[in-house]
Amino acid sequence: MKKNSKLRALLTAVVMVLPLAFGFVGNGVQAAEKDTQTVTLHKMAYDEMPEPTTPNTGDEMDFGGKPLAGAVFTAYDVTKEYWETYDTTEGTDGAKTDAAQARVLALTSLTGTSYEFAATDTNGEATLELPKKATDNDGKLRNAIYLFKETKSPAGVVQSKSIPFVLGLPIYNDKTDTEKEVVHVYPKNETEDLTLGFTKYGVEEDGKTNDFLAGAEFILKDKATGKYYTTETGKFTASEATASKIASDEKGKVTVTGLVLNPGTYEFYEVDSSVSTSKEQDVDAEEIFHYAKNPMVTATVDTDMNVTYNYYDLEGNLVENATGDAKAYNYKVPAPTKEASDHDVDTDQVFNFEITQLIPTDIADYTTFALVDTFDSKLQLVSTTEADLLSEIKASMTTEMAELVSGVTIDAANNTFTVNFDLEKVKANAGETISFKVQMSVKDGATWGGEIKNDITFDNNFHDKKDSDSVKTYGKKFLKIDADSKNPLAKAEFNVLNPEDKLLGTNADGKQVWGTKGDAGFTPLVVKSGEDGTFSVSGLAKTDAAGNDITYRLKEITAPDGYALAETPFDFVADDGTATLNINNKHKGSLPSTGGKGIVAFVAVGVVAIAGAGLYFMKGRKHIEG
């Protein structure tokens, strides 16, 4: 029994010692415990941030949302600043803690050691070992305090909703002094899908009327990466050549939806389309619009996913940081106009072509601005030298507009002249109208009734625009004939008179004019019938300023041999040569020569014979009666 009692006592002693022995070993392990604590961040994304009703406990928790990959956090050591404020603040632990946290959250310059977490993975997680202790301003070892900041956010994150937070290590299990193996922290972010877009307008030639422009095309670029948006991936992964084209709809809307974006700048570049081009192309310039500025619209996304736009207004002024509907304008080149002062003219009659050109609203985008006049070979300039033509043009303009003209060039071989302008001065007069006149006349020999055209071209760097006007001149064909036999008569001579009794003729310079005999240098025109009786008058206007036919008169001044001179002039209206007017002459008949016996002698003989016969018969009757 004694042996058994001794054995039990020995076993009891051993059992009592073992815990001490193991405790000693355990204390040895504790002495070598980690200087760091594991911190795991769980980055969660929300369409709308949840109310912060449940605080982090350091344990794994469920706050809803979805994991957000790609976030990078940096933990800044703010131990010194924290404890300095804590130690100098009066009051309870809660008050001291609040003051210390407020200070470190307000820090703008962070000079302490920093620790960067790897980007959160597809589970939204990132883990790092952080030191549990750090020195304060007095060199004392204190609990380490860290300020956590999200230093890189994934695309689409509203960064203002990612608030910096303070974490003090070590973190213990609830109601114990046992440290947590892993500290779980759940920073949250609100994400937002964005829509970028604007409204496209087409500006007509007058520079004022505008309406939605459908069918204009754009590509969208991420300025930071240089990549372009593609609808295949919904991301910015394309090159400029493979970028998706985004067309404006019937309301002019250019829209890209469902974009998950990083803060940054996104640029809409317009590309050539069926409705708008950037330069002269083989298109119908009457219907095409043009653009010059690219990027056309710029969208800026800030860290809170707010979008602002830079764009150009109707007058081409840059609008910056607009928060409302952005706009973009395309323009038509305004066409010039050309108008003759008289469309129905005489040969050598001087008349004006008036040329007008509206200065475009978007003139600031023009690099070429000139007016090129191309005239028919049957037209001629009155001012034939460049100096004279320049003076003539400027004299017909207002003083302000005349200052815009820089010079004139004449290409006589190609029947053109060009009016050049000082482009910088023109740009200062957007929306104004240039107007000037040029004197011309029709050369002799122009086809009767045919259009004698004059074109004006607005030469510019987008789409050349043209206008044209024409004049006509007429004449009249005649046939001189015998009034009875209808045979043609040659060598009849005529003058032509207008309704004011002016004679058609030439002046000292050989130009066709209407004048009066005796006028200095004036020579009346004499037209003569040929051997076939035909003759004509050319270079006459058909109608007057009111559009009424002009009645001319053909006055015979020399009749054909053996024919009586017509006392009454022949009225006619000029035409295109399709009708011939017959001019009749009466033959004079036959009369005796002056001084001959003629018929008088025969009449006298007859009278004597009749008288003798009468006497004879009277005598015979008396004889019979007697």
Written overview of the protein:
- With 626 residues, this protein is α+β, with helices and mostly antiparallel strands.
- The protein has four domains: 36-191, Immunoglobulin-like; 194-331, Immunoglobulins (Immunoglobulin-like, Sandwich); 337-471, Sandwich (Immunoglobulin-like), CATH 2.60.40.740; 474-585, Immunoglobulin-like.
- 16% of the residues lie in helices and 38% in strands.
- The protein has seven helices and 46 strands.
- The strands form twelve sheets. Strands 16, 17, 18, 19, 21, 24, 25 and 26 form an eight-stranded antiparallel sheet that branches.
- A hairpin with a 6-residue loop joins strand 14 and strand 15.
- The chain is rod-shaped, with a radius of gyration of 54 Å.
What is the structure about, briefly put?
By secondary structure, the chain is of the alpha+beta class.
